[in-house]
Specification:
With about 350 residues, this protein is α+β, with helices and mostly antiparallel strands. The protein contains nine helices and nine strands. The longest helix is centred in the last third of the chain and has 22 residues. The structure holds zinc ion (ZN). InterPro entries: Amidohydrolase, Bact_exopeptidase_dim_dom, Peptidase_M20, Peptidase_M20/M20A_hydrolases, Peptidase_M20_dimer.
């Protein structure tokens, strides 16, 4: 067996990023300061919160480091949640974890609940999951720590709060849509407004937010010896490769803010075996529900179209009919597992 060949990509040019940063700096300088008809908290209360935040600084920095080093992936953030819960408990705050069918959800509340005459409920949202292999590249450890720190600073003034503040820990933001799962189960019920901090690689004055869906496409072919009887095989990896190409071509004809990015999850075992199964996973993002729906449908069409092309649905009338029937029964030759959520 000869040795494998590997290559590392060179660093992409910073030119476009530099332009973005320059634009952001220009816009930030020209930005009109935000004003409001509300005067905000009385100075004494604001000063007390700032003081509490300053006192908690070391705890918050430590928590960020702990969550960063744990680097637990979606739905498995057990130790990260325990670290947050531990800090809250040390401040005498009651914490609930593992509610609403997700073992790594977290909630804590202080202040005056609406039922007790409070003026409303504001949620501070914490995320804490990392990416597999790469760790906390998105900075969710900073979200966890800043949310917990902000909550604790307000908790220190709990007796003077006119309303309720809740800390909501939402698992699985790097794939898994933790917030959506929890929202469906009522985790956010009663919340009037929610705030969260998300780090970024440069300052952003106004950041566009895109809705996201996940699509898993599974192609099932027919295994065969790739040298002795390749003509008896139907190659699931071919369907996946063409699907990936087709999505690439589709990009030219998408609205500018749409995003589609995918990986090949499975693509065969040995070069000598025509791959019987291949699986792709895509994240599909768009700025509006209508355009997200449109983009989702187009990717579904690509998935089915490539099954027709690469897996030979049209070759044999009987096979095709059976395959379509199987597909329609959701367990057939092509299995579009459907959009997650
Ligand atoms: Zn993130």
């Amino acid at each position: 067996m000869s040795t494998a060949t590997t290559a590392t990509g060179s660093a992409p040019s910073r030119a476009y990023l530099d332009l973005l940063e320059a634009t952001t700096r220009r816009r930030a300088l020209a930005f009109e300061p935000l004003t409001s008809t509300h005067t905000g908290a009385p100075e004494a209360a604001a000063a007390a919160v700032r003081r509490a935040a300053a006192e908690g600084r070391d705890d918050v920095a430590t928590l960020a480091g702990v969550v960063h080093d744990l680097a637990e992936v979606a739905f498995e953030e057990h130790a990260s949640v325990a670290a947050i819960a531990d800090l809250l408990t040390r401040h005498g705050i009651e914490v609930e974890t593992g509610t609403h069918s997700l073992a790594t959800s977290l909630s804590a509340r202080v202040g005056l609940a609406p039922g007790d005459g409070g003026t409303g409920t504001i949620a501070i949202v914490a995320e804490y999951d990392a990416l597999p292999g790469i760790g906390h590249a998105c900075g969710h450890h900073l979200i966890a720590a800043s949310a917990t720190g902000a909550f604790l600073a307000l908790a220190a003034q709990a007796r003077d709060l006119p309303g309720e503040v809740v800390l909501l820990g939402t698992p699985a933001e790097e794939g898994g849509s933790g917030k959506e799962l929890l929202w469906r189960e009522g985790f956010f019920d009663g919340v009037d407004a929610a705030v969260m901090l998300h780090p970024f690689s440069y300052d952003v004055v106004d950041h566009p937010f895109l809705g996201r869906r996940q699509l898993v496409v599974t192609y099932r072919g027919v295994a065969a010896h790739a040298s002795a009887q390749p003509f008896m095989g139907r190659n699931a990896l071919d369907a996946a490769a063409l699907n990936y190409q087709a999505v690439g071509l589709l990009r030219q004809h998408l609205p500018p803010s749409d995003r589609v990015h995918g990986v090949v999850r499975e693509g065969g075992d040995r070069p000598s075996i025509v791959p019987e199964l291949a699986r792709l996973e895509y994240y599909v993002r768009s700025a509006h529900p209508e355009t997200l729906r449109d983009l989702s449908r187009r990717l579904e069409d690509v998935a089915v179209g490539l099954a027709l092309t690469a897996l030979d649905w049209l070759h044999d009338g009987e096979l095709r009919a059976a395959a379509v029937a199987d597909f329609e029964a959701a367990g057939g030759v092509v299995d579009v597992e459907g959009y997650f959520a």
